[in-house]
Design brief:
The chain is of the alpha+beta class and 74 residues long. The chain has a domain of 41 residues: YefM-like fold, CATH 3.40.1620. It is 42% helix and 16% strand. The protein has a 3-stranded mixed beta sheet.
């Protein structure tokens, strides 16, 4: 893992981000010894439409009746 001083990271921020993306992480060190680690977030492969189901306690027969009633009105 590559390590930068604060000044180096500030002056080459685009490069620091590219290295973090390529290598998985980059460390930045301050003069006072504080260390920060930049990690890329992994892109989610799930669809934004992939929504967790909710149990509502409605039977299939009830659901069919509701849909039929809605079609009759429309």
């Amino acid at each position: 893992m590559k390590s930068y001083t604060y000044s180096e990271a500030r002056g080459n921020f685009a490069t620091v981000l590219e290295e973090a993306e390529r290598d998985g992480a980059v460390e930045i060190r301050r003069r006072d010894g504080t260390v920060f680690r930049i990690l890329p977030l992994r892109k989610s492969k799930a669809s934004p439409l992939d929504v967790k189901g909710v149990k509502v306690g409605v039977s299939t027969a009830d659901l069919v009746a509701i849909v039929r009633e809605g079609r009759e009105r429309g």
